[in-house]
Amino acid sequence: MNIGKVTLVGAGPGDPELLTIKALKAIQRATVLFVDDLVSDEIVAFASKQTRVVHVGKRGGCKSTPQAFIEKLMLMAASEGENVVRLKGGDPFIFGRGGEEVEHLRAAGMQVEVINGITAGLAAVTSLGVPLTHRQHAHGVVFVTGHAKPGDAGTDWRALAATARSARLTLVIYMGISGAERIQQELLSGLPAATPVAVIQNATLGTQRHITTTLGALADAIQAGAMASPSIIVVGDVIGGVAVAAAHPHVVRAA
Ligand code: SAH
């Protein structure tokens, strides 16, 4: 028996124009909207005036709403026949616990639809005018979290460094600011200190800023530049092209 439906929608990295048309339509159809922290107000403003908007993030100084409680609220609304949309930053299935939400909703008998969004790591690098892969510099890309679940050993940075070097991979690190010093130390076990790195904060928003540095100087550069969350840390030779891209007027910078 189906007791309702929830749509998980990727809100993209911040710039409202980077929403997909499908995401926009879902937001406009919603009767209840559950909104994550990293979703900008301009995107929430696409909802109809009658839509009930529930903020479930840390904004306003509150601790973020526990995951189980958010899921319960969504289940209740969906079973009452509401058109429930869960709006998550970036892509719902890249970190941000979208996978867990879907599992729990499906286990409760809900139908779940997921609409992709542009993930922050992709948008952050593009906003600097360089690619994530490049035939000369990077044969692939790894999206990795710098922040593991409590009790979990987390990412094996040493293994990742060795692989990134031998397989020529770009590393795109989410939630890496608070652990940057440790990440830097461990990555240096397998990658040269001169490896180019960029840190991009508030990608695609009017408040976007970035620094470029090297792996050897990463933690110091983050401190000197006062780079804070939400930021993406990108490690790899593709970042060497940032200075070249910035010197050319045809590069389109986001917002
Ligand atoms: N699902 C999201 C990621 C959620 S995890 C996505 O696909 O983008 C939250 C992390 O995403 C932040 O700690 C930060 O590392 C990154 N992030 C989200 N929005 C960002 C932005 N506009 N600029 C830089 N990093 C961002």
Overview of the structural elements:
With 255 residues, the protein is α/β, with parallel strands linked by helices. It folds into two domains: 5-118, Tetrapyrrole methylase, N-terminal domain (Cobalt-precorrin-4 Transmethylase, domain 1, 3-Layer(aba) Sandwich), CATH 3.40.1010; 121-246, Tetrapyrrole methylase, C-terminal domain (Methyltransferase, Cobalt-precorrin-4 Transmethylase, Domain 2), CATH 3.30.950.10. Helix content is 29%, strand content 21%. The strands form two sheets. A five-stranded parallel β-sheet has the order 3-2-4-1-5, with helices on both faces. α2 (41-44) links the parallel β2 (32-35) and β3 (52-55). The termini are far apart. 42% of the residues are buried. The model has no long low-confidence stretch (mean pLDDT 92). Residues 13-14, 38, 88-91, 94-96, 119-120, 124, 174-175, 200-205, 229-232 line the site of S-adenosyl-L-homocysteine.
Write a compact overview of the structure shown.
This protein has 255 residues and is α/β, with parallel strands linked by helices. It contains nine helices and ten strands. The chain folds into two domains: 114 residues, Cobalt-precorrin-4 Transmethylase, domain 1 (3-Layer(aba) Sandwich), CATH 3.40.1010; 126 residues, Tetrapyrrole methylase, C-terminal domain (Methyltransferase, Cobalt-precorrin-4 Transmethylase, Domain 2), CATH 3.30.950.
Key descriptive features of the protein:
single chain, 255 residues, alpha/beta, Cobalt-precorrin-4 Transmethylase, domain 1, Methyltransferase, Cobalt-precorrin-4 Transmethylase, Domain 2, five-stranded parallel β-sheet, five-stranded mixed β-sheet, 9 helices, 10 strands, 21% strand, globular, binds S-adenosyl-L-homocysteine
